[in-house]
């Protein structure tokens, strides 16, 4: 089969397609014939050689993907030809991933689904929708009628969280550092699009005098104290991402950073945190026009993976870069 195999840190234009054996099926694992996958910051980090120790060379990149079941073990409940998604759980890091014509993944990493949506749409969803859904539910317990602040709103997770929160009946405040992207925030569900200058709490409280019910932190450590000040007592902030690259707060003092009565949680999940019923609801919401997935560009063929990496790093268009295997 054809695959993107990484043997050492390289530049985007050094990602090349090579021929490798199709992986053999073994007990407890499912072989997928890949149809599409999203390209993520995780793959960029791995390509640069900056991943955590769980990443090892040589490795086929790709932490998520969608396709059809090619072979499955008896008793798995999966049948050849069935559509399925997979993501994370060591995929593309400690075992080979989705940047290939076939991928072998654990049965527990499989999310079966049935939809007539095109592969380029479904391929954008697993990682960003799982992270957004888990942040809103496990992390924040967001309810209909509540107010949500999304800090880092033009990220793929931010745009997805806004769309999912609106579908749940929430009022969404979302942020961007670029005034020319406020329209993108509104297109994906934001009721209020705010330009982030690093000091948002007072402006948020002009719209929500008591503070928001929930806040999703995607910018990272430097923004978190200000985000927490925008949350009402009894409300919750969830730390999910660090677009700034800073995951920690130097000399962190809980009494200085966390307002009295405000709850602070974190979220990080995987395939098991996106149940098939939830994914099915998301797919139907897209098909019915209630949800708009954030797709920056669709690339066709494994040969376009280098361009997808280049475009992702350039950051010119918000949304997910998707590769479709023709």
**Class based on secondary structure composition and strand pairing:** alpha/beta
Named CATH topology of the largest domain: Quinone Oxidoreductase, Chain A, domain 1
Largest sheet: 7 strands, mixed
CATH class of the largest domain: Alpha Beta
The tally of strands reads 16
Helix and strand pattern: EEEHEEEEEHHEHEHEHEHEHEHEHE
| Structural domain tally | 2
Low-pLDDT segments, ≥5 res: none
CATH level-4 homologous superfamily of the largest domain: Medium-chain alcohol dehydrogenases, catalytic domain
What is the approximate shape?
globular
Average pLDDT metric: 94
Q: First CA to last CA: what distance? A: 14 Å
Q: What is the rounded Rg?
A: 20 Å
The percent of residues in helical segments reads 25-40%
List the helices and strands and how they pair.
Elements lengths: L1 E5 L10 E3 L9 E11 L1 H7 L11 E2 L3 E8 L11 E5 L14 E5 L3 E3 L6 H4 L3 H14 L7 E5 L4 H12 L3 E6 L5 H6 L4 E4 L5 H7 L4 E6 L6 H6 L1 E9 L14 H4 L5 E4 L9 H12 L7 E6 L4 H10 L5 E5 L2
Parallel strand pairs: 9-10, 9-12, 10-11, 12-13, 13-14, 15-16
Antiparallel strand pairs: 1-2, 1-4, 3-5, 3-7, 3-16, 5-6, 6-8
Protein name: Zinc-binding dehydrogenase
InterPro entries: ADH-like_C, ADH-like_N, ER, GroES-like_sf, NAD(P)-bd_dom_sf
Pfam family, one: ADH_N
